[in-house]
Amino acid sequence: MADKPVVITDQNTQKSLELPVIAGTEGEPTLDIKQLPSELGYFTYDPGFASTAACTSEITFIDGGKGILRYRGYPIEQLAEHSTFLEVACLLLNGDLPDEAELKAFEHDITYHTMVNERLNNFISGFHYDAHPMAMMAGVVGSLAAFYHDKLDMNDPEHRMLAAKRMIAKMPTIAAACYRYHMGWPTAYPNNSLDFCSRFLNMMFSVPAEPYEVSPVAAKALDLLFILHADHEQNASTSTVRLVGSTGANPYACVAAGISALWGPAHGGANEAVLNMLDEIGDVSRVPEFIARAKDRDDPFRLMGFGHRVYKNYDPRASIIRKACHEVLEDLGKTDPLLDLAMELERIALEDEYFVEKKLYPNVDFYSGIIYKAMGFPVSMFTVMFAIARTVGWVAQWLEQCENPTKIGRPRQVYSGPAERDYVPLEKR
Ligand code: CMC
Question: What is the pLDDT of residues 134-146, one digit of tens each?
Answer without folding.
Answer: 999 999 999 999 8
